[in-house]
Amino acid sequence: MIPLDPGTRAMVDEVRELGRTYMRPMGLESDRTGDPPPADHPFYLLCSRRGGLVSRVIGEGDGETPESLQWKPLRALLQAEESAYWDRGVALSLPGPGLGGAALRSLATPEQRERFLAPFADHSRAHWGAMALTEPGAGSDVARIQTRAKRDGADWVLSGAKMFCSNGARADWVVVWATVDPALGRDGHRAFVVERGSPGFELLKIEHKMGSRGYETASFALDGVRVPGASLLGGEEAARGRKGFRGAMATFNLTRPLHAAQGIGMGRAAHDHALAFVRAEYPAHGARRRRALERLAEIRRGLATARLICMHAVWLARRQRDNALEASHAKLFAPPMVFRAVAAALDIVGEAGVREDAHLEKLYRDVKILDIGEGTQQVQRLVIARQLLGLPREE
Amino acid sequence: MVRRQRRGRLRNHARAYDPAPVTEFAHPEELEQLRAEAARFAAAELAPAARASERNGAWPDHALAVLSKFGLGELDLAEELGGVGAGALAKALLLEALAAGDAGGLPAADPLGPEAGALALCPDRSRARELAALALAGEARSALLVADPDGAGPERLVWAPSRPPLRFVWRSLGPELALFELAAPVEPVRALAFHAAGGVSAPLRGARLVGEWRLPTPESVALRGRARLWSAAVALGVAQAAFDATVAYARERIVFGKPVAHHQGNAFELAVAATNLHGARLLVHDAASSFDRGEAHAGFWASQAWLGAIDAAVVVTDLGVQLLGGHGFLVDHLAEKRFREVRMLALLAGGRDAAEADVADLVLDVPDPLFAGGSAAP
């Protein structure tokens, strides 16, 4: 047993209970209907009333004592892992500022933080924030975004299209990335907080996906959306210091290990299904059982390795050390390993695993997006190769 | 004098050592110092002499004299057995650092290498003390034979280093542990790698049975796991050296207008190899700490770590030959030596099949270290 502090242990237990009671059933329901749970689902209100998924998690404004510095990043990882164990889609749909919040924390002025994060202290209803970076023509290569930001007096006017915006349709605001001039590449990037209901900010559709259906994946059109100058994240000064693009990348260094940890949770879910099947259905001896046990052991090895890589990456970050390489190691290692783990679990369970009520077939569909979102494994290979091999960028 | 001071420091470390939980990745200062000194020694003394050592069948005397200051054999051995008791993590870090310079003579230089687990777990403590003393004095060594419970494979120790002289064989067969004293003289053999450690082979037929014991399964896996941990640490060191050398070459050598490393097909393979090596290292260090924390399933995790480390190291050392092209096949470079060493490490202590059998035997009983009992789904 890894000795966890009582607070972390209590948090894990709480997530487990909420996962079992709400998240797994909600995820199965979303998978059946194809639609994410409605924004007014009682579970979201319950989460909001607690100030997050669980009481006293890694909330905003916690004091940073040596104790909390030691445990907070671990709690974030364990929360990601355990909630994804029950349903990764629903875990992503939980109220909170989301990726937009991470961008705010790394870029925003104190006034902007106060203005946009204060609503999350209102626990009477659920609030969401979101981030819109990906476009139909710019996914992994975020430098190619085409959404334009033009100055008009004290305001900015945004025009373009965004997709893969998680929780975008129910968010109070969306951090939208745009360029003042595509010829400037990354130097031209700016991030704006666009509030829901802004004229011209039009929801095109909620995408239908192969899996991970428990959260909204929204596509937007921005048709001359006017935002005040005060909504440019970090103000002009930050933009001139080229903080814009770096802000986006810093966001991902924080979230890649968490993304990988979600994969560990899903792999563990697949493992537990296969384990239960072996216990119930396999005779005590025989070649097939032996093969199944070897496969289970291989899954365990992959999950344990991924967990260590993730923990190491956040451990570095919390010590203010550069973790870009280690965060990419986590994101490169975990998703393909988890994909193989779910496939191996299916091999153990055999044909019984492909029935729709078997959950394993859902995991097989759910897990694939992990290797795509927040930087595909190909992008991670590029990032690692640039660091270790001096691979030049091809602009 | 230096040696005594170091032993004192490491002993103090051993007494104050509170093995870190998995959430802490910084090694204690004494261990970092040990690792750094070993790395400097390996780079300065072992690496330049690697080929000469292979030819001579031994590391140079002056290198062995310096190496004795590191207390390689005593480091992880309990004080009860005449060791320093600095723990399995300390030993793994030292082996890794030395192997990065040259692994060729390591099995001989470490008189109690993969057998440390048998000494630690043998129920006959006076016998264990006797064998430890003989090995540390350089008079006689033991070797570990991991036998197949179904009787596959020859009843002989196929390879052991030739120094100190081989006199005892531990046979680990499922939960059974037996100790034999060899009767016939051992036969010299030349194996795939580790030529600087010499090489002997010995049949068990005719050997005198000294003792026989039955251990609980987790303990017998811990005994074999300790041997695998030794081999995993050496594999990590060899693989890291291979990776560094490959990258250095592949960034310099130009093919089709750009460095070998900058062709995306190669760059991607190296990136994945680096990630897997990083993960394997974390797993090996964690398994070593698991022994130091006295955890019941340390053997399971050490066997898992060995499987991970060997997988990663085989790929890295293969890339090491492949990306050097024809040069990789020549003995002018160390790539082919590292390629052979890792393959041999993958075969010792019962090899892959024995390790997979051990982890499969225990997988239903070992709880997830973070979520004991699992999340009790589905």
The count of helical stretches of chain B stands at 13
Q: What's the alpha carbon Rg of chain A, rounded to whole Å?
A: 21 Å
The strand line-up of the biggest sheet of chain B is: 1-3-4-7
Strand tally of chain A, please? 7
Name the beta content range of chain B: 5-15%
Q: CA-to-CA gap between the ends of chain A?
A: 48 Å
Largest sheet of chain B: 4 strands, mixed
Distance between the termini of chain B: 61 Å
What spatial form of chain B do the alpha-carbon principal axes imply?
globular
Oligomer: heterodimer
> Major β-sheet of chain A, in short?
4 strands, antiparallel
Write down the secondary-structure element order of chain B: HHHHHHHHEEEEEEEHEEHHHH
The CATH architecture assignment of the largest domain in chain A turns out to be Up-down Bundle
Brief synopsis:
With 395 residues, chain A is of the alpha+beta class. In chain A, 52% of the residues lie in helices and 13% in strands.
Structural account:
The complex is a heterodimer of chains A (395) and B (378). Chain A has helices at residues 6-33, 42-49, 66-92, 98-107, 110-117, 235-240, 243-281, 287-318, 324-349, 360-367, 377-389, and strands spanning 129-132, 148-152, 155-166, 173-179, 189-195, 201-206, 217-228. Chain A is globular and about 75 Å long. Chain A is of the alpha+beta class and 395 residues long. The model of chain A is unreliable at 56-66 (pLDDT under 50). Chain A has three domains: 6-95, no CATH class; 101-241, Butyryl-CoA Dehydrogenase, subunit A, domain 2; 245-389, Butyryl-CoA Dehydrogenase, subunit A, domain 3 (Up-down Bundle), CATH 1.20.140. Chain B has 378 residues and is α+β, with helices and mostly antiparallel strands. Chains A and B meet through helix 1, helix 3, helix 7, helix 8 and helix 9 of A and helix 9, helix 10, helix 11 and helix 13 of B.
